[in-house]
Design a protein that fits this description.
Elements (H helix, E strand, L loop, with lengths): L16 H18 L11 E5 L5 E6 L4 E5 L26
Antiparallel strand pairs: 1-2, 2-3
Length: 96
């Protein structure tokens, strides 16, 4: 039996995180196969610091991985609580 879909505020059926990931994977695979240039917006959570000797920044994610980026790639930067599991934003989320 298929899991029930909820409706968004606009009345459209809301996709599950798995459906969303499948759609994104398909779009990325299509773009890679065609050699397309994409603008990809990611959400990263971690501690930031300036990269020494350059105009770049580094963010260390909870798992320890470090990513380096230029400030020109940032769309927004917002503070988060120290414990994301208890933040109001995370209240409706389910971890998979």
């Amino acid at each position: 039996m298929a899991s029930p879909r909820s409706e968004s505020a606009s009345g459209h059926a809301a996709s599950s995180p798995e459906d969303t990931a499948r759609g994104i994977n398909a779009r990325l695979a299509e773009a890679a196969a065609r050699g397309e240039t994409l603008e990809v917006i990611l959400v990263l959570r971690g501690k930031v610091r300036a990269a020494r000797g350059s105009d770049r920044w580094r963010i260390r994610e909870a798992g320890g991985r470090v990513l380096t980026f230029r400030a020109t790639a940032v769309v927004a930067a917002t503070p988060v609580s120290a414990r994301p599991e208890t933040s109001p934003r995370a209240a409706g989320r389910t971890r998979v």
